[in-house]
Amino acid sequence: MPSQIFHPDFKARPFWWEAYAPEAIAPIELPKETRVAIIGAGYAGLSAALALNEAGLDCLILDANEPGFGASTRNGGMVSGGVNVAKRYFAKPLSAEESVPYLNDAADAFAHVEDLIARENIACHWTKAGYFLGAWCNAHYRTMEKKVQVLNADAQSGAYVVPAARQREEIGSDYYRGGMVVERAAHIHPALYFKGLFDVIRRRNIPVAAKTPVTNLVQSGSGWTVETPRGAIKAGDVIIATNGYTGNITPQFKRRLVPIGSYIIATEELPPEIAASLSPKNRSFADTRRVLTYYRMSPDRKRLIFGGRAKFGQTDPVETAPILYRFMLDRYPQLKGTRITHAWTGNVAFTLDEMPHMGKLDNLHYALGCNGSGIAMLSYLGFQTGRKIAGQVNRICAFDQDEFPTHPLYHGNTWFVPWIGRYFRTRDWIDRRLD
Q1: Which end of the chain is more exposed for a tag (fewer CB within 10 A), N or C?
Q2: How many other CB atoms are found less than 10 A from the CB of residue 426?
Q3: Are the C-beta atoms of 161 and 178 separated by less than 8 Å?
């Protein structure tokens, strides 16, 4: 099968890059000093820069690659309003009361992205068509029946459960044991959303230094010296916005983040009647399996974009494409024979408490740990970090916590991640068997 699933024009690169690929930009002369240096030119870094600029503070964005080369132009393009907050596999689950402030701010994160796209007229195929979460087993469905009340009360989700007998109204599949619809959810073209943010940055003449890795950070007095191969910059504050690409320059963050590759495939254009049947209401989809999958139609509704944890670790997306293809056929047997035109990967950053974080550690500001909700959460936490530095916040964001958990035995080596994958697959098998 593997050799037969690839289209003759197959590309091992993101489908999104057909519309916009991270581009080489002209090198700039580095300033001798800046009020704020932002490390990372993804959603979080650009959003922080916009907040600082609106407050009248100068800043400089630095990136080791082209702006947007990481997950900001590689993700699945699904935007939720709090569905994934407090979803925990290892950390202690939050009580309904404890989850309230996080759900409130997750709802604000969704509104922030929606308002930003409208205000800046970003053409990124924003489609507020809702989200269907498939129940992997009956026990998961029963949990959903309780969860909808919390989501509706604290995240304005417009959520409701759909029994298995009616799930064909939402998805052209009988794979799940029913599911949950969240009306306050959307999907976008993630690379065009990034392009829109980056265009705003350029219109405001905010300097961006691409291909400029930070080689050292030295605290000097009340500020920082940011060292690069092209020279050093004095900065009053530094924001770390590197998420799944956090490296050795900031070991205190590397040991708090677990980068995991997420893998995605795109099908060739489908026959219209089949394409229309997969997602009757143009919803986006995910499921409650621990070995997660997520998927949605392309903006023109002609292809299926299908992603998930095909492998726990870092590997070639061509190697994982047959695994995702099998997952896709499990849900949509009618796609047998369909070929893949694109396969790619990007890093998601998980945290040890499975929650996004912003704050200040060792005098470095940060917005990190999207846990798979990067579009909304990193856009929001980056913006909140910029406003915080500018002194424009009148309350503390729920994700701005003093504690950013780590573990004495973890220093950034993800050797254990494949073992977590084996555990997840076993638990998924048990859950389904118990039905």
Answers
A1: N
A2: 11
A3: yes
Q: Give the model confidence (pLDDT) of 24-39 as tens digits.
A: 999 999 999 999 999 9
CB hemisphere CA count around 197 (13 angstroms): 33
As a dihedral over the C-alpha atoms of residue 175, residue 127, residue 130, residue 85, rounded to 10 degrees, the angle is 100
Apex CA 320: angle with CA 357 and CA 346, to 5°? 30
DSSP 8-state assignment for residue 72: G
Query: What is the arithmetic mean of pLDDT over 219-239?
Result: 96
What does pTM read for this prediction?
0.96
The span from the CA of 295 to the CA of 305, in Å, is 5
CB 364 within 8 A of CB 238: yes
Distance CA 183, CA 132 (A): 9
H helices of 120-189, where? 138-155
The architecture (CATH level 2) of 2-426 comes to 3-Layer(bba) Sandwich (3.50)
CB atoms near residue 311 (< 10 Å): 21
DSSP one-letter code for 356: -
Predicted confidence at residue 12, as pLDDT, reads 97
* Strands 357-361 and 364-368, bridge-based pairing: antiparallel
In angstroms, the CA 100 to CA 97 distance is 6
Domain spans in the chain, listed from the N-terminal domain onward: 2-426
Length of the chain in residues, anyone? 435
Output the pLDDT for position 373: 85
In angstroms, the CA 336 to CA 347 distance is: 29
pLDDT digits (tens, 9 = 90+) for 242-301: 999 999 999 999 999 999 999 999 999 999 999 999 999 999 999 999 999 999 999 999
Q: pLDDT (tens digit, 9 = 90+) per residue, 151-179? A: 888 888 899 999 999 999 999 999 999 99
Amino acid occupying residue 150: V
User: Which of 1-10, 123-132, 191-200, 204-213 is predicted least confidently?
Assistant: 1-10
Q: From the CA atom positions of the chain, what is the Rg in Å?
A: 21
| Residue 73: count of CB within 10 angstroms of its CB | 29
